[in-house]
């Protein structure tokens, strides 16, 4: 009777459905009824199609720090988002030097992109392919699959309403002969794995019978070109790998190993505080790592490096077993072609405005290492700022009138605040002092120009770091999330020279500090507020920060386990 009762209810449901499926099941005397409302489903599908047509499509190129940060913070309920990248994972690049020596395993620092977008309810589509061309006129990109030797077309195109270019950069060789053919790079996970195999090859070859001591020394001479954070950290990791692990396995050649860092500048880590540079150089000297400053590499061959000593003009030949090239970043070819097409062909890197919009192409955005923010100079708008501040049209500007627009000026031109801080000017009234140091109650246009004439000297390009890229990705995602809201109620600074305000506040980089692991369980850190920390305690701070910055609990646990495993068992020297 219970089954007939269920059937009666199901038949009652039939009156509002266009189709009814009844499936009986004899077990337990039950009756399972499945009803599908075809008319309503068709309406839902049709409504979904209409919503999809209304939504703007955002195409993201790249799955590095900038692209992944954008995807994680993006509210995709109002957009159709598609991602194109030749690699289907995100790599925690600050730990790549650790991967080169087995301190951390390669799979511990990567997270599959599909795992990341899966957490967004599958509303983001990913295509494993490389971008060949950006066509801004037709709002589309041309791509090619990285999977070869399988059936189907490799080339395809995607249309977009907004394009986010986050492809990072490639290694800058400065057109030095032999670099591409004979040097290792350290930009990708595959680079780190290749370096790890080569290091083991150098030791295996050096212990073979029949080699002279000179040949062994050459094979075990590791040269790092570039004394920036990546080059210094790799040199430190390699030193620890050799002296903590490899000398126990290859005792016959332990006294023949040599590590050399070649730096064109006067100091290594020259982007850090001077105290950190000196500490690093002193520690490397104590560890036996040779640091050659003021030297420029002019040619690399299979077994030697030719360099020029700037101070004497002398050319020196340095034999090597392996060379790692870490000297900066360059623009990718398809980005270079895009720059030529939009009138940026004479620039060395893709330029955006303060809102990360590509100059000359307003619906294309660029974030990360592939771009630089072209901050507008305040002297270019000094006359319009003066006119906007001079409310009574007197031809002079009082302190009160300037203070009324000061907040908008600082937001629009962040170099003003940097100038005040660097010159220890705690009050804006100090800008209006005359040559004798007396404060003036008002200034004319010439005095206003003179007061701000040195402000633009504080303009600096942002470094090509993961920290900058991640902040740019988060900022741009926030702009898209508040697109309609901010266009209706602008939150940015006022438009000098016209009415209204900018829809968004411009991007502002907030420096959170930087680390430089120096080996031997020691590290150096430059922290906000001009704080500098060096030593073993800083190494533990480095461990905690880098563990917390992992993109998932899976990679976080794997990285911590790798550190623990290395401490207990040492590094693995297998050539795999």
Structure characteristics:
single chain; about 575 residues; alpha/beta; seven-stranded mixed beta sheet
Radius of gyration: 30 Å
**Arithmetic mean of pLDDT:** 88
Strand tally: 27
Shape: globular
Helix content: 25-40%
Give the terminus-to-terminus CA distance. 69 Å
Number of helices: 19
Question: How many strands, what sense, and barrel or not for the largest sheet?
Answer: 7 strands, mixed
* Strand percent estimate: 15-25%
Structural class: alpha/beta
**For the largest beta sheet, what order do the strands appear in spatially?**
9-8-7-4-3-10-21
Poorly predicted regions: 1-50
Oligomer: single chain
Main location: mitochondrion
Protein name: NADH:ubiquinone reductase (non-electrogenic)
Family: Belongs to the NADH dehydrogenase family.
Pfam families: NDH2_C, Pyr_redox_2
What does the model show?
This protein has 576 residues and is an alpha/beta fold. Helix content is 37%, strand content 23%. It has 19 helices and 27 strands. The strands form nine sheets. Strands 9-8-7-4-3-10-21 form a seven-stranded mixed beta sheet. It has a four-stranded parallel beta sheet with strand order 14-13-12-18. A three-stranded antiparallel beta sheet has the order 15-16-17, with no helix packed on it. Strand 3 (56-61), helix 3 and strand 4 (79-85) form a beta-alpha-beta unit. Helix 3 packs parallel to helix 16 (466-481), helix 7 (189-206) packs antiparallel against helix 8 and helix 12 packs across helix 13. The longest helix has 21 residues, at 229-249. The chain is globular and about 90 Å long.
């Amino acid at each position: 009777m219970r089954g007939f009762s269920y059937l009666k209810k199901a038949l009652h449901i039939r009156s509002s459905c266009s189709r009814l499926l009844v499936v009986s099941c004899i077990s337990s005397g039950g009756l399972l009824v499945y009803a599908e409302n075809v008319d309503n489903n068709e309406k839902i599908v049709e409504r979904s199609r209409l919503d999809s047509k209304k939504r703007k499509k955002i195409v993201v190129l790249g799955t590095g720090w900038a692209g992944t940060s954008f995807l994680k913070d993006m509210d995709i309920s109002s957009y159709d988002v598609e991602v194109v990248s030749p690699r289907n994972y995100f790599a925690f690049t600050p730990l790549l030097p650790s991967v080169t020596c087995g301190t951390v395993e390669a799979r511990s620092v990567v997270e599959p992109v599909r795992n990341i977008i899966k957490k967004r309810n599958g509303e983001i589509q990913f295509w494993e392919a490389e971008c060949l061309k950006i066509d801004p006129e037709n709002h589309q990109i041309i791509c090619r699959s990285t999977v070869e030797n399988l059936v189907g077309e490799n080339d395809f195109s995607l249309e977009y309403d907004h394009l986010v270019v986050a492809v990072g950069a490639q290694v800058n060789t400065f057109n030095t002969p032999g670099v591409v053919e004979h040097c290792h790079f350290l930009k990708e996970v595959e680079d780190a794995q290749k370096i790890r195999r080569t290091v083991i090859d150098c030791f295996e070859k050096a212990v073979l019978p029949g080699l002279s001591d000179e040949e062994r020394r050459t094979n075990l001479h590791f040269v790092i070109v570039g004394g920036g954070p990546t080059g210094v950290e790799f040199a430190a990791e390699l030193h620890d790998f050799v002296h903590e692990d490899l000398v126990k396995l290859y005792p016959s050649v332990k006294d023949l190993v040599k590590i050399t860092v070649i730096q064109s500048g006067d100091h290594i880590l020259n982007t850090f505080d001077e105290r950190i540079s000196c500490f690093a150089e002193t520690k490397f000297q104590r560890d036996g790592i040779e640091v050659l400053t003021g030297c420029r590499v002019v040619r690399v061959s299979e077994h030697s490096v030719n360099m020029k000593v700037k101070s004497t003009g002398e050319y020196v030949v340095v034999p090597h077993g392996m060379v790692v090239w870490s000297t900066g970043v360059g623009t990718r070819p398809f980005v270079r072609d895009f720059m030529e097409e939009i009138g940026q062909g004479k620039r060395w890197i893709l330029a955006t405005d303060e809102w990360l919009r590509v100059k000359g192409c307003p619906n294309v955005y660029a974030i990360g290492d592939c771009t630089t923010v072209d901050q507008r100079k305040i002297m270019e708008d000094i006359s319009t700022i003066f006119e906007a501040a001079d409310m009574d049209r007197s031809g002079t500007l009082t302190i009160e009138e300037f203070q009324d627009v000061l907040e908008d000026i600082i937001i629009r031109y962040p170099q003003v605040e940097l100038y005040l801080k660097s010159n220890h000017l705690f009050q804006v009234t100090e800008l209006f002092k005359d040559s004798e140091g007396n404060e003036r109650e008002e200034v004319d246009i010439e005095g206003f120009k003179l007061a701000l004439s040195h402000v633009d000297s504080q303009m600096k390009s942002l470094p090509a770091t993961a920290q900058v890229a991640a902040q740019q990705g988060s900022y741009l995602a926030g702009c898209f999330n508040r697109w309609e809201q901010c266009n209706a109620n602008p939150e940015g600074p006022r438009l000098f020279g016209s009415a209204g305000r900018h829809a968004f506040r411009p991007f502002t980089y907030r420096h959170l500090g930087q680390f430089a692991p120096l080996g031997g369980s020691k590290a150096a850190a430059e922290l906000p507020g001009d704080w500098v920390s060096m030593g073993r305690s800083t190494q533990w701070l480095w461990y905690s920060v880098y563990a917390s910055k992992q993109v998932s609990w899976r990679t976080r646990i794997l990285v911590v386990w790798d550190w623990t495993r290395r401490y207990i068992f040492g590094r693995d020297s297998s050539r795999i």
